[in-house]
Amino acid sequence: MNMNDILRIAIQKSGRLSEDSLKLIKECGIRFDNGGGKLKTAATNFPAEILFLRDDDIPGYVEDGVAHLGIVGENVSEESDRDVDTVHKLGFSKCRLSIGVLREQEYHGVKDLDGKSIATTYPRLLDKYLKEHNVTAQIHEISGSVEIAPSIGLADAVCDIVSSGSTLLSNGLKEVETIFRSEAVMIASKHLSPGQQELLDQLLFRIKSVQVAKNNKYILLNCPTTAVDEIIKYLPGMRSPTILPLATEGWCSLHSVINENEFWENIEKIRQAGAEGILVIPIEKMIL
Ligand code: ATP
Ligand code: ZN
Question: Given pLDDT bands bounded at 50, 70 and 90, which one contains residue 62?
């Protein structure tokens, strides 16, 4: 690797992505000082610099190679239509881009939008959706406060980011179509040097280890030796659980990994099979 190889990573300066983006970088063991509202900071233990930008500017900076990597919502990356690689989904800032109409308006399907005007900050994604559904509507591009457009008569409908739906609701709107599902993604420049590609691979390896760890828990339990075969059926996590004898004759301690998604269902079966003293511990990193 060339000594001059460095990864410049662009993240949102302040907004819904900021906290989780910083957390992810820190969980990957990359340390840096981000005090004082700086726009740029250098990592102290990894060849990286962090740039703090408005999210809308990130895809452009990555396309131009000013930043080598960026963390943005897929919605922003897709809307920007910049020539970048989406290298990894990050699992946070999940939201959807939806069409909403006034609550009292009758709505039967997407064809009802024919001839209507729709206010949005996502003209490109909306246009694509409308074309795919053979709907001709007028797209009214505005830069913010989209959800008030119908109630002030600016447009018949909106196309905006929704997570819980409460903003739509409080503006007298109902969600009628979901046009795009989004989460935070890592985007990368298409012109990385071999050394930068190597650094990116290292970073992705760390990110995946952090993500896998979050989806799994370390489990320890005591059980009669005769129950081991039954219990390990519900612990498919690792290749093979660790089994240690206990001082009490006929009993052992069993250690394994359990998937978060199957946790409650399996823990019940494990208990019924005779397990006692069950401890479940978060895992910080998991190397596959
Ligand atoms: P900036 O000042 O950087 O331009 P912004 O106001 O455009 O910020 P935010 O509201 O901080 O952007 O949202 C950033 C991203 O977070 C969105 O593009 C979207 O991917 C995601 N997001 C938006 N709203 C929500 C939500 N309610 N829940 C989860 N994620 C969301
Ligand atoms: Zn923005």
Answer: very high
Least confident of 84-93, 114-123, 157-166, 258-267: 258-267
7-92+183-213: CATH class: alpha beta
Q: So where are the chain's domains?
A: 7-92+183-213, 95-181, 216-282
- What lies within 8 Å, CB to CB, of 195 at 6+ separation is 1, 2, 5
Is any atom of ligand 1 closer than 6 Å to the C-beta of 27? no
Tell me the angle at which helices 18-27 and 194-214 cross, rounded to the nearest 10 degrees.
Answer: 100
Q: Give the pLDDT score at 179.
A: 98
Return the residue whose CA atom lies nearest to atom 26 of ligand 1: 163
Q: How far is CA 19 from CA 24, 44, 80, 121, in A?
A: 9, 20, 23, 23
Nearest residue (by CA) to ligand 1, atom 19, is: 73
Q: Ligand 1 atom 30: the closest Cα is on which residue? A: 93
- In which band, very low, low, confident or very high, does the pLDDT at 231 lie, cut at 50, 70 and 90? very high
Domain at 95-181, CATH class: alpha beta
Ligand 1 pocket test target in 12, 16, 166, 170 with most atoms within 8 Å of CB: 16
Q: In CATH terms, are 95-181 and 216-282 the same topology?
A: no
185, 58 Cβ separation under 8 angstroms: no
Nearest alpha carbon, ligand 1 atom 24: 161
Whether the CB of 20 sits within 6 Å of ligand 1: no
Domain boundaries 216-282, CATH class: alpha beta
> For residue 165, what are the CA distances in angstroms to 139, 170, 253, 271?
22, 9, 47, 39
The answer, yes or no, to whether residue 147 has pLDDT greater than 90, is: yes
Ligand 2 mean position, distance from CA 100 (Å):
20
Q: Which of ligand 1's atoms lies nearest the C-alpha of 164?
A: 27
